[in-house]
Structures are given as structure tokens and as C-alpha cells.
Amino acid sequence: MTYEILLAGFGGQGVLFAGKLLAYCALFENKEISWLPSYGPEMRGGKCNCSVCISDEPIGSPKVMEPDLLIALNGPSFDAFVPTVKKGGKVFADSSLIDAPCTRDDIDYFMVPATQLADDNDLLKGSNIILLGKLLGETGLFSMDTVRKALEKNTPAKRAHTIDNNMRALGIGAAYECK
Amino acid sequence: MEKVLMKGNEALAEAAIRAGCKCFFGYPITPQTELSEYLSKQMPKRGGVFLQAESEVAAINMVLGGAATGTRVMTSSSSPGISLKSEGISYIAGSDVPCLIVNVERGGPGLGSIQPSQQDYWQATKGLGHGDFRLIILAPNSVQEVVNLVVRAFDLGEKYRMPVMLLSDGLLGQMMEPVEFPEISDKQADKSSWAATGTKMEREHHIVNSLYIEANDLEEQVVKRYEKYAKIEETESDAELYLCDDAEIVVTAFGATSRIVKSAVNKARAEGIKVGMFRPITLWPFPKKQLLDATKNAKNVLSVEMNMGQMVDDVKLALDCKLPVAFFGRTGGVIPTPNEVLAEIKKLNGGVQ
Amino acid sequence: MAVVFERPKSLCDVRLHYCAGCTHGIIHRLVAEVIDEMGIEGTTVGVCPVGCSVFAYNYFNCDMIEAPHGRAPAVATGVKRARPDLNVFTYQGDGDLAAIGTAETVHAATRGENIAIIFVNNGTYGMTGGQMAPTTLPGQVTTTSPYGRNPKTAGYPVHVCEMLSTLDGVALATRTAVDTVPHIRETKKMIRKAFENQRDGKGFSIVEVLSTCPSNWGLTPKECIKRLQEECMPYYPLGVYKDVDTNVANAELLKMGGAI
């Protein structure tokens, strides 16, 4: 099994963090992993994406060119990366921010109003985790227990209170029924 | 030992501390930032020195001073910063003191770009400053290998009393992979015959110096150094051969590019093309014998690099022009894709048939 | 017979290469005497510049390092940070310290790097044959200011001690000379203070010593001393520009200039 996953959005939307959670989940399950951020001169607001490869085999190129799974957190990433998704791949996108049509019939779209769900549930800036929840729900890639461990590993003590919120966000994402 | 996920830059820094590096002198530059930030946090807690210098020029000269005392010291920078450091690197080489210099390469020339590149191959292997001298150049291709080579770099530097460069790039520096840290012996070479540590009034004074006012004296020093280099070429060259045994096409690549090439080779093998990969781990000394072994059944060689064609010169020299050597590269910070490399392999495969 | 004068132990028993009448020899001796008197030869590491005193590594008996041009304060920083137990000094000329090495000097000073700097200022690049230095006086003829240094095109001389005295990291910035016996004595006192400051962890100390260059000034040693007193000292007043012990950092106090 090899998953090539691309997460994309604006800087500040938690693209790298969501990718890191996936990488740590894979670490806890003894997979081969690579996590590669794109980086630019801007700290906030610029285009940001993150390649995560998870495999049973050693990983060659860490840069994901043709993702099996895409998380798109904004319109520009959706436009840029949906055409690169592998045949049979899955797209998880924030329909609160993305208004584009789903035109490919060789991939599955999961349009989740993640920003709206985050607002409704008092989960400020939780759209990344809600979409991650949907991805985990659809693919069964990792159990919620593993994700919790990954969250614990990546949350500094002074922000420990966010772990439960993030678990809630994952649950909301996983449970959301796409139209 | 437990595996942890770390960025290449951070793993490099942690490995350096574990290898007994006591001083880091640097100057901020992208994309090596995480390395110095990590050390700025860790060094004071672990009995080491972190000092942010006023320039790359000052930083490399602090390295010269620290290294002259026989202390394990290092600096890191990225391409434009290494150009500034080249003055000091020449003096360090001419003074025969060991140290570790890290180049997390980015695009050039000039301010260039901050994305990954391998445009400093020539600089690293042939032109790190004025004068007749070499550095041992190590080029890892994974975060784990970064760790392993940092340890080797310090040991080699002390064994041969010379600076060693670890040539990384923005891709290796920024990516996270699982890594484990080997048990590292704290044994270091005996430096008491040359280090400037104070005479304690027990010996003649030591002079750490690169100046020889008599031409014959300088020639003698340089020749002696070249005898040492010959020994290093004989014993320290290292390479990875991947599926080369029956390969009719051998793709040569170093560092991060070899990851992309490996993916392309796997795709080509899946299509029945007999292709392998040769990856030098030491760029200097260039592993000539290993390349000859890797290409024993080859009809074509392809060098893939993140530049306009630099290592390809050494590939041709090592093969003595006995095989056709093609080149494919992307530059300026653009990373080649496995499909692009596959297309180049197919071109050569068609050519053979 | 009682020995009344001998070579300091911290100086090697070798012939110095300096020109006749050059004051480097006196300054070397003062540094060596201080090292001897403090009993620190075995724990001292010196850093040489590029310039006339490039061979100082052959003259001082302690461990020595030869730095690239201007980088001695950075090299000394590396030594001191790696081995804080060592006494570290640099010995630099004006081209080395105040032109190509300005950044290294200023930043070692502002970091309060715990080292001693002996700065020999003779207003010319001696070793390369008398070119204009950062400290060459306005109007002074050199091989690269053949019509006299014109500040409109070549800028003004650098006042090193005055400049460094504004920095918080500096423990001692003082300008002395070796033209007379009292000035030589004062210079030695200041060199000793610089080494003591380091021993006591007080930070960066610089002793600027006004010096001569008979070969490139084109004067006899005696004429050189006269020029030093009549032309150089008024432009570069002697005095303590900063001393953390007495808190001398006040421009008013500097007006005592010329006589310390």
C-alpha cells in the first residue's frame, strides 16, 4: 500500500499541521513516511502545500505530483491540484470556500462545508481537521486512537485543551454526509 | 532506539550535538534556518555554544578559531552564504584544521531562489576557495543518512585534519522522515600535536597557519596534502548502486535528486526497461571505481541533476568517455519529476533498440 | 653580574623582520612582558593579522593562530568561545582592523567578547608598500594618495577608539603611543589592564597604540617620532575613551587628550 497525499491551502489554514498529523499516525504504525512542505518567503497568507507519502516500501520522490488523496482548503488549490489527482483518487475540499464545479468523473469528490461546520461548532480555524476527519472516515487510513496519539505528540502542553476540540472536529468531519 | 519524525535540518543539528559538536557559528539564511534555530535552543542546554555572527565571513572565521583549539565545531549556510565563507574555508584547509560545513543548497546565481537546488556541485567539489585544496564532500539523500553522515563527517575531518562539507539541499532540509539516532562513541582523534590550547609551558608553541613565505615550503605542504588526498580517494569513496547489475541504462544522481530518480527507475523497471541508479555518497572523492562497476553492463548513462549539468563532468571523466553520457536537469529551484526522468530513460531505451 | 635587562620569556629567541626604527618591536615586547608578569604564557593564544605583524606567530612563544585579513577578532571569538579558559589576544594593524575587518571589530566589541585587542595604528599599509590606510591623515601622501589624501574623494580617517567607546560591550578603549618612555610605560599599563579585564571577565578591551613607519613615511626614526607627536597625536588624541572601572565614556573627559 502506498498513499501519496497532497494538502493545500493558504498559509495559516493549518495545512502543514494536518499533514504532520498524518505523518505521525504513519510513524506510530511503523510505515515509511515522508512529509515535505512547500515553502515561500511569506509566513502567512501565501500559497502553502504539503506532500505526505505513506508506504510499506521505502519512499522515492517525497514530492507528490499525482496525489491519491487531495485535501483542498481553498479555491486556488482546488483549481490547481484537482487536475493532478490520480485516476480513482479522492478529493476532500472545503465547499464553504470553494465554488468550483466537480467536473472529473474518474475521481471521487467529497465536498464538505468545513469552514461553516467549524463556525457552527465553535471550532475556530478547525476546517483543516474537519476535512482530515472526512478523509480518515472515507479511507479508514488510521484509527481515531492513532490520531489522538498524533495530536498529543504535536500539541504543546500549554495548548493541551485543543486536543479535545480537534478530536471533536475529526468526528464532525468523519460523520458529515456529503450530498 | 525509538524512531522519531524530524526535518532534515533539525536531524542534522541533533546529530551534530550527539557527535560531540561543541560550537556552532552561523548567520541566518533560508533554507537552513531550522538547523540554526534548533541549535540555538539546544546548545546552551547541552553544554555547547551557539553564536549568531554578524556575517557569514565572521562565522567561518569563528569556526577557524574554534577548530584551531581542537574543539568539534561547525557552521551551516546556504549557497550565497557559502560563497562568502569560501575565503575562510580556504584558510581552514590551508591550516589543516577539521570542521564541519553544511550547505543546504538553494537556487543561484546571485540571490537566486530559496527553493532546492544542486547548483553548488562545482563549487563544493572544485572551487570552495582559492588555492590547491580539497574538502571531503558528503551528499545524503534521506534524513536518516543526514544523521549518519554528520557523524562520519566529524570523524573523517579529524582523521585527515581537514574540513568536511555536508552538501544538503532545501528539499532534504525541509522534509520530515522517521529517523533514529545511532549510539555515537564520544571518542575523538588526538589533537594534542597541533591544537592551539595553550602550551602549559610543557611544549613548543603550536602555530595554526596557512602562510609559507618560501615557495618551496608551500609546495612541500601542498604536495603533502595531496598525498593525503590520494589516500582519501583510495579509501573513503562511497556510493549506492541500485539495480545496476543487469542495467543497460545507468542513471547517475546525488542527494535529493536520487530520490526522484529511484522512483523513475522503479517505474521504468515496471515497464521492463533494464535501468539502474548510481548514487555517489561522497562527491569528493568521486567514487570512480564504483561507477565503473555499476556501468559494467551499461550501454548508456544519464546524469540527472538539479542544475544545468555539473556532476555530469565527473561522470564522463570517470568513464573516460567509453560510454555515451546524457544529461537531464531542472534548475533555479525547480525539482524534476519522476515522469520527466522516466521520459529521458525511455528516450535512451529507444536509442539502444 | 646581575641581569638588569633580558628578553621576555614570551618572546621567541629569533630575529624580528621589522624595519629599523619600527615601533612593532617595542609593542611586541610590552605584550610579552605583560604575559610574563601575569604568568599566563601557558594559557594564552594569540591571533595574528595580515600586514606587517603577520609573522608575529613566529615571535610570541605562546600558541598562535594566523587569521585571514581583518578576521582576527572573529577567529579570537571562536577560540574564546570554544575555550573560555584561555587568554586570547589579537595583534592587528590599522588596515586589518579598521578597513577590511571593521565589521569583525565592531561586532566583537558590541558582543562584549572577552578578548584583548592590541591595535597598532601607523596610518599606512606597511607590508604592501605604503598605501593609504583608513587612518591615513587628510593631506597625507601615500602610494595610493599621491596628491595627499583628499577627504572629498577618499573620505576621512576612522577614529577607532572614539567609535568603539559608544558600544556597551566595550570594557576598555584607550589610545596610547610609544614615542616616549612615559608613554611606553602607560602603554604597558593599558595592555596589562586589557589582559586583566579578560581574566576578570569584563569584556572587550582594545589598546590602540599610535605607531610609526619610517620606511613608508620616508622619514628617519627620529623624524617619525616628531611627526607622530606633531601631526598624528592632535588628530588622534591619546586618552582613555572608555573604561568600565572608572566609567570613562564621557567626551568631556577626553579633552585631557595628548597627555596620559
Verbal overview:
In chain A, helix 3 packs across helix 4 (127-139) and helix 5 runs antiparallel to helix 6. Chain A is α/β, with parallel strands linked by helices. Chain A has helices spanning 15-28, 75-81, 114-120, 127-139, 144-154, 162-175; strands spanning 2-10, 32-37, 47-55, 69-72, 90-94, 108-112. In chain A, 37% of the residues lie in helices and 21% in strands. Chain A has a six-stranded mixed sheet with strand order 2-3-1-4-5-6, with helices on both faces. Chain A starts with a strand and ends with a helix. Chain B is α/β, with parallel strands linked by helices and 353 residues long. Chain B folds into two domains: 4-235, Rossmann fold (3-Layer(aba) Sandwich), CATH 3.40.50.970; 240-352, Rossmann fold (3-Layer(aba) Sandwich), CATH 3.40.50. Helices cover 42% and strands 19% of the residues of chain B. Chain B is built from twelve helices and 15 strands. Chain B has helices spanning 8-18, 33-42, 56-68, 79-95, 121-126, 143-160, 170-174, 215-235, 256-270, 288-294, 311-319, 338-352; strands at 4-7, 23-26, 49-52, 73-77, 99-105, 136-138, 163-169, 176-179, 207-208, 239-242, 249-252, 275-280, 282-284, 300-305, 325-329. Chain B has a seven-stranded mixed sheet with strand order 3-2-4-5-7-6-13, with helices on both faces. In chain B, strands 10-12-11-14-15 form a five-stranded mixed sheet, with helices on both faces. Chain B has a two-stranded antiparallel ribbon with strand order 1-8. In chain B, strand 4, helix 4 and strand 5 (99-105) form a beta-alpha-beta unit. Chain B is globular, with a radius of gyration of 21 Å. By secondary structure, chain C is an alpha/beta fold. Chain C has a single domain, classed as Rossmann fold, CATH 3.40.50. Helix content of chain C is 36%, strand content 18%. Chain C is built from ten helices and nine strands. A seven-stranded mixed sheet of chain C has the order 2-1-3-4-8-7-9, sandwiched between helices. In chain C, strands 5-6 form a two-stranded antiparallel sheet. In chain C, helix 4 crosses helix 5. The radius of gyration of chain C is 17 Å and the shape is globular. Residues 250-254 and 256-260 of chain C have low confidence and may be disordered. The chains are: A alpha/beta (179), B alpha/beta (353), C alpha/beta (260). Strand 9 (207-208) of chain B pairs parallel with strand 2 of chain C, so a sheet runs across the interface.
